[in-house]
Amino acid sequence: MNKTLTILAPISVLVFIVILAVMYGWVGTMDTTMGGETPERPELNTAANQTQLINNPTFPAGVGNGQIQLINKPTFPAGVGNGQIQLINKPTFPAGVGNGQIQLINKPTFPAGVGNGQIQLINQIVQGSPYLGMGLADVPAALSQELNLKAGVGVYVKSVTVASPAEKAGVKSGDVILKFDGKNAATHQQIGEILKTKKAGSVIKIVINRNGKKKSFHIKLENAPNLPNTAFSSPNNSQAQQSGRQQNNVQAQQNGSTQQNSPKNPFEPPPATSKIWMGADIQDIDAVMQLQFSLPDTRGVIVSHVSANSPAMTSGLETGDVIRRFNDTRIRDVNQFQSLILKSQPGNQIQLTVLRKGSQITLPLLLGEQTPTPEKPPFLGPADIAIEGTWIGMDVGELTGNGAADLGLPAGTKGILVNDVESPPATMLGFTTGDVIVAVNGQPTPDMKNFETATQKQTSAVVDVIRGNKHLFISVPPPGFTQQGTKINQAIDNKIKQVAMTQQVPQPQQTIQPCPSVQTQNQQTFQPCPIQQPQTQQGVQQQPNIKSATQRFGIFASNPDLNSTVYGNRFQTPYLIMVDLSNNSFAVIDPSNIGNIADTFSSNNLSALVCSDISQQAASDLSAKGVTIYAGVVGTPNRAIDSYQSGSLTPVKGL
Amino acid sequence: MMMIKFFAVVLIAVIIIFAAFLYRGATKLEEESKAENKDCGNYKEGGKCSGKACEKCAQRVGVVNIIGNILMICIKGYLGVAGRSKGLIADAIHSSADLLATIIMIIGLRISDKEIDNKYPYGYGKAEYIVSICIYLFLFGIGSFIIYNGVWTIVEGRIVNPCLSAAWGAIFSIVINELMFRQSICAGKHINSPSMQAKAWESRSDVYSSVAVLIGIIGAKLGFHWMDPLAAVIVGVIILKICIEQVKDAVFNLMDKAYDEDYIDDINQSLNNMENIAGIKKVVARELGPILEFEINLYVMPDTTVAIGESIKREAHNIIKAIVDRKSTVKVRLFAKQG
Lengths: 655, 339
Fold this sequence. Notes:
B: Alpha-Beta Plaits, 3 strands
């Protein structure tokens, strides 16, 4: 033994040295290949391999001119310019409400006291079989391709219930189950069948694929937590998929009361074993909320409601706060926050780092213990609905006093009751019948009149909903976009073709140049030309309401084509796309060739600039030359041209 | 990132496994030096022993050194890889070289413990040097690679952007090494052991190399990305220096280089004072691993009896033991003085 060790000792050190030397060789090249993944992070043990943010926090908000607030890069078409939001696309809500131009009044600050709640329903249980605690679905095609899975292999783990057998075993959401109890898993129904043959207490082995690596876990099955006559629900029914948003949100509050008050919903969470009470409801942040609350990114969790006389209220937590850190731990999402809370004990003092109105503050919070309060299940008769309307695919009506009482809401609660959820997008967004809309973008909606004014002007909105006596934020993305700000469909085609530049030096006067006419519509050059009258015989149909829109204008863009992104010049050097609507042509000037923007504009006779943001200097130079500036515009130049033509953009004033 | 973590965990596990062995080896080393050296430091003027506390402290030096070095290798290696600092990784390799020196010493002790057999009638004392040469030639290669790669990194202008945790590794190394230096130098002075003091100064040189690494990391953080590889190159040079010294030592000992002259002079003087001898013909010594082998050739009067001769031999043994504070063997030959 000693002899072995005598040899082993120096050899291990030598092996160690060799490995260190290999690592040594890697360092330095790693920065180029791995791209500075964690160069600034002192904590080394962050679980970087976990699937974190579904939505990339690529929504840097910049403030232009002290007033222009916008979202630069992403494909999110709303920007706030000059205290307004200008949407480039024409919204097409099925209900017909909310068409036309969108101007949001400033940044909404949510009224104090109007909070939100959220009922978390992750748990999907197959009736009559042991409890697993996983939400299952078919493997998304993209993931299947990424993991090189064969068709028909694997079941996707959509969600894992906290403290469930699956979680205890180590299964995480995002895993793909390959084998279940030794059998190949192809569909979730199969797993359900296998489960039915098992009893609580038996141990099954599952093999999963996580990020391309195979892992196996042993799950000890348990009896399902007592379910208040939950209807059988297929783990993969359409409702489950469509209300995916609800499954992403977990309530931090582990009180028994909230879990009893939604018998309508089949996805009932297991009764809380812990009585830790914080008294605040939290939600994940999506792109729409980020826009409405002017957040720099979507990290952290947003406080949607603070209960009265709760520890959270005592600590000073407010609705709309974004919790970024919990005792120095960065908060990624609600699941993580909840697990952190559950690890604490009542009476523990915790530190919450909170982002409020752009500044970070730290709040000490003393966790309390929950005293459950029974609540009545909401019920509502149709007779209680007085004035009706429709919005984004829902039948809505004014909530009457009786209705409020039936829903178990405090007397005097006013809002708009969702009477029926009929079609997308409402069905996709997680609205359910019985929701009471109390505010839209911070504007209270006590009656239909207010509701209509609040909803008419918007495409994207954060809707404050009371469901089961809890407040809940539901984001309504603009048409064509998901709640995460992802684009659904592609840009429109303006039939505008690119032409070559002939001039970009300042011309003495424009009158010398021939102007594009019917004859020159096929010209292949972009020539300086005086302002033209709208030509209706051309392909571009001028809107009759066009007033200030002139024929030639410039757009700042990320790339020299019309399907790129409208840019600003404060954070990046944009391409200048010059559009001549009179003959449907555009030309591009490289960032390096723009030079003095004001001179370029006057030499090319451009009368307006469409951009996402603009520097103070350029803005004052341009307005001195009489150029109208449309800032806060986001989206593709194509859409920008469309909106410009329709006259739906609002110029920046007061420069 | 996953791979780095995996490596770190495996390596730390391996190191911990034989840390136990090293600890045992170290205690054995201490026991033996204790057995050899019952009264503290009687070399030269008799030393200034300041009681049992210092002696105990001195006994712990070896163990502290080994554990300290293992700790530093693990932490510096891990932080160096995770924090992506070339300098810190090189420093970890440097510490490994120090640890290797200690391990080789322990191995030497073990090998020389082996009973003399017919095949090797002079014992296994020199095996240690062969092991040492092999290992340090290998380390020499590693050191060259560190320098080569570091220089190349600077020349190519690759960006090495270490994370601040690497700086913590360097600070940790500085602190531990300085503490080890303080302990060793104090104990070494008090029990008057030059070898212990020499070891102490090795720890000090480790401090300097870690300081260089720290400066490199901070420099890289400030935007001078070539500073971290530069620190690595400096550490590489130090490693090469260690290797050259050790190989040189081993080769000299293999070649039976004459032992330190001061010792020989002292011995000569003491031997001269002995009774019954007519003169000193030759006193030579060579190192056989941890053992010092003396060969003493003395002149005696031709009429000396064998009994007197034996007593001379015993006395010579005692003199050597009194002077030399190491495990030693003494061979005494008596020659009749002519004329």
